[in-house]
Specification:
Elements: H1 3-11, H2 19-25, H3 41-60, H4 64-84, H5 87-94, H6 98-120
């Protein structure tokens, strides 16, 4: 999928694409974890910057719904760049450990989601968070 098309999908809020639609958008489907050698250094830097921007916004949001939305965007951006480039290449280009920032964004997402659940169901006991790496 061309990077610009992917950016447009994310920018326009189309985050809930199901697998059938997503597979049609790719010219040649790749297995999960496939590295895209055509992605240039600037594109990787831009994806990481966008993810950091959304994570920073999520950390500052006082509205739980907005915090959850922003953290979901951050997770999506980090997942996209992690699919497109190796962790070592991302680290070398940006100085960012993608595994750590993905985990941090997921923790923000989980915290906001748990707080929203507690608002709706005050007495509900939630199990301990498990962040899958």
């Amino acid at each position: 999928m061309p990077l610009q098309r992917l950016k447009d999908l994310v920018r326009n809020g189309i985050m809930g694409i199901d697998a059938r639609i997503a597979s049609r958008l790719y010219k040649q489907p790749r297995p999960a974890g496939a590295i895209d050698p055509s992605m240039n250094d600037q594109q990787i830097r831009e994806l990481v910057r966008q993810g950091l921007r959304w994570a920073f916004a999520a950390a500052q949001d006082s509205d739980l719904v907005v915090a959850h939305l922003h953290s979901t965007y951050a997770v999506a951006w980090f997942d996209i760049v992690a699919e497109a480039a190796s962790a070592e290449r991302i680290q070398a280009l940006t100085g960012v450990n993608i595994r750590e920032v993905r985990e941090g964004a997921r923790a923000l997402q989980d915290r906001a989601q748990r707080a929203l659940i507690q608002l709706e169901h005050p007495g509900l006991q939630l199990p301990a968070a498990k962040i899958v790496r």
